[in-house]
Amino acid sequence: MTVLPEPISNLIQSFERLPGIGPKTASRLAFFLLRAPDDLSQNLAQALLALKNTTGMCPVCFNITLAHQETCDICANPHRDQDSLCIVEEPLDVLMIEQTGGFNGRYHVLHGVLSPIEGIGPEDLKLASLVERVRKGDIREVIVATNPSMEGDATALYIRQQVSSYGVRVTRLARGLPVGGDLEYADQNTILRALAGRQEII
Amino acid sequence: MTVLPEPISNLIQSFERLPGIGPKTASRLAFFLLRAPDDLSQNLAQALLALKNTTGMCPVCFNITLAHQETCDICANPHRDQDSLCIVEEPLDVLMIEQTGGFNGRYHVLHGVLSPIEGIGPEDLKLASLVERVRKGDIREVIVATNPSMEGDATALYIRQQVSSYGVRVTRLARGLPVGGDLEYADQNTILRALAGRQEII
After folding, report:
1. pTM for this predicted structure
2. Which of B17, B51, B73 would best serve as a mutation to test chain A binding (most A beta carbons within 10 A)?
3. Higher-confidence position of B196 and B44
């Protein structure tokens, strides 16, 4: 007993394939666009079509870049520190760290993490090129900013093993209570980490 | 300090204009599509472009219909009851009620509710055509299924006033505890309504 015209059910199905969007949200979005001014759906469609044609990957750090650019803006920027390299899982992580303004070095995007369960090994990630960058360049610190998960930790360990012979410092982002968080809602592992990493009040 | 290539920030901005999608979700969707197979973003774009060109509004009930159809499938269906009319705010509400299979009459979509605060009066809704349908047709019951909000209630009252002279029964969907819900999490108004509408166990 379908009562939905095909164009709408098509759009709902397309929305449902996006992460975090279930059938209810997909319907809500489709019916919203039906009522909304034409340019809203037109703009979204144009942006979607342009996405893959006009973007590429920086051959140095594997961050997203414009298709016609040689390297990304960060790699091309002479004012960024040459001696520190931040390793992240995904291009979105670069954005998150850039928005903090707390890092002025360069990045290396792995495009995933090591995961034996999902069959993702070192050769599936941008790891060889990372080791090559460390070997060639004058990098002094490698900050591993993979997610604080089991896979992120394993990847961090692997990276340390791979680059330790080149005399670089390998660090990992601190774990602890999130700022503004509440002890009451923190999980046990986070509290254990926060205890272990406690610092002198000065 | 923007580090995002324009095609991505464009897509993020387009997603952000949709209801319930904030900057974080918009970024996540854009970066997901960047990694996902091409056809995912292509299909969504095509569905968006087709939406407005291929859909129209049923001239009888104002539900969504295909552009080339004269009336919607429900209005055109001779097996649907002619004598009961369900009034809803939006086309999505038709879908929600149809999915229950609990109603076999026809619909009338108001495309909004009366809201003096937002300056929406009777002439902004499909109310005149509703009164006309009741006047002309052999409708015996009008079920007002506007949302259980202040505006939905006011609109229901207005409809009752407008059609009462035609000798039709005007009803409203029952209020009470949602099925599977928990008294502990119900708000006071819902509990008050559930108490007032309590029914004999038989």
Report:
1. 0.77
2. B51
3. B44
